[in-house]
């Protein structure tokens, strides 16, 4: 079954405190976005990779990736969910009945994890996400008027998971769920949250914990270390 690959990459990544969006920061010999896109383009299921980019993005056209015939550029939105929806609107669901969405800032995802996600979801006919079980003790905090946060209580971690990407869902169901959730003003942090809100089941497929998302400056250094070890 043909799967559309979608990477929302219109954000500015302000927490990185860099001179450019984090997807265009250098990681070894390529930008973060190039590493991430290369992972999806290496999948045998990939015939089209949709990149939701800022309409004013000055960096993408300078990359060799821009000349790849499998890559289709889409105008992204102000928030991640807006960019994902823009990408979904550009995808022909009759040609691509499933869409796999992956964060631009997760260049370390393993192909074996993606293949496992695809096999489980297509085999069951239900969407799902890569996730890793929470290993640390979890605290719910309360922010007082001033000073540091205070612990309210410890959260039971046995059934808690870190949501990762990729996330894979039927294209039409995801498009409808995301569109309705945004119209209703629901806070959407990933594709699964829109599907959950719409009442659709979401499977948890265990993935590697080193599928980190580059968000802070120290994450980039850790990603470089992992790449060197690989």
From TrEMBL:
This is 2-C-methyl-D-erythritol 4-phosphate cytidylyltransferase. One of its GO terms (molecular function) is 2-C-methyl-D-erythritol 4-phosphate cytidylyltransferase activity. Keywords: Isoprene biosynthesis, Nucleotidyltransferase, Transferase. NCBIfam families: ispD. It is an enzyme of class 2 (transferase). The lineage of its organism: Bacteria, Pseudomonadati, Pseudomonadota, Gammaproteobacteria, Chromatiales. Belongs to the IspD/TarI cytidylyltransferase family. IspD subfamily. It comes from the Bacteria. Coiled coil: none annotated. Its EC number is 2.7.7.60. Catalyzes the formation of 4-diphosphocytidyl-2-C-methyl-D-erythritol from CTP and 2-C-methyl-D-erythritol 4-phosphate (MEP). Pathway: Isoprenoid biosynthesis; isopentenyl diphosphate biosynthesis via DXP pathway; isopentenyl diphosphate from 1-deoxy-D-xylulose 5-phosphate: step 2/6. The record marks 15, 22 as: Transition state stabilizer. The record marks 157, 213 as: Positions MEP for the nucleophilic attack. It catalyses: 2-C-methyl-D-erythritol 4-phosphate + CTP + H(+) = 4-CDP-2-C-methyl-D-erythritol + diphosphate.
């Amino acid at each position: 079954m043909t799967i559309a690959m979608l990477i929302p990459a219109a954000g500015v990544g302000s927490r990185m405190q860099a001179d450019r969006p984090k997807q265009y920061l250098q990681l070894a010999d390529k930008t973060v976005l190039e590493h991430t896109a290369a992972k999806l383009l290496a999948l045998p299921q990939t015939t089209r990779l949709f990149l939701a980019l800022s309409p004013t993005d000055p960096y993408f056209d300078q990359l060799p990736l821009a000349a790849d015939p499998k890559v289709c550029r889409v105008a992204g939105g102000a928030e991640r969910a807006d960019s994902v929806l823009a990408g979904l609107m550009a995808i022909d669901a009759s040609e691509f009945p499933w869409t796999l969405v992956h964060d631009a800032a997760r260049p370390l995802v393993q192909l074996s994890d993606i293949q496992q996600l695809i096999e489980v979801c297509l085999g069951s006919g239900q969407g799902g996400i890569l996730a890793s079980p929470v290993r640390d003790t979890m605290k719910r905090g309360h922010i007082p008027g001033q000073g540091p946060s205070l612990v309210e209580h410890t959260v039971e971690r046995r059934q808690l998971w870190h949501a990762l990407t990729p996330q894979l869902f039927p294209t039409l169901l995801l498009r409808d769920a995301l569109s309705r959730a945004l119209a209703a003003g629901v806070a959407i942090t990933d594709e699964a949250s829109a599907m959950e809100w719409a009442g659709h089941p979401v499977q948890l497929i265990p993935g590697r914990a080193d599928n980190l998302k580059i968000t802070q400056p120290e994450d980039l250094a850790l990603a470089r270390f992992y790449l060197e070890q690989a």
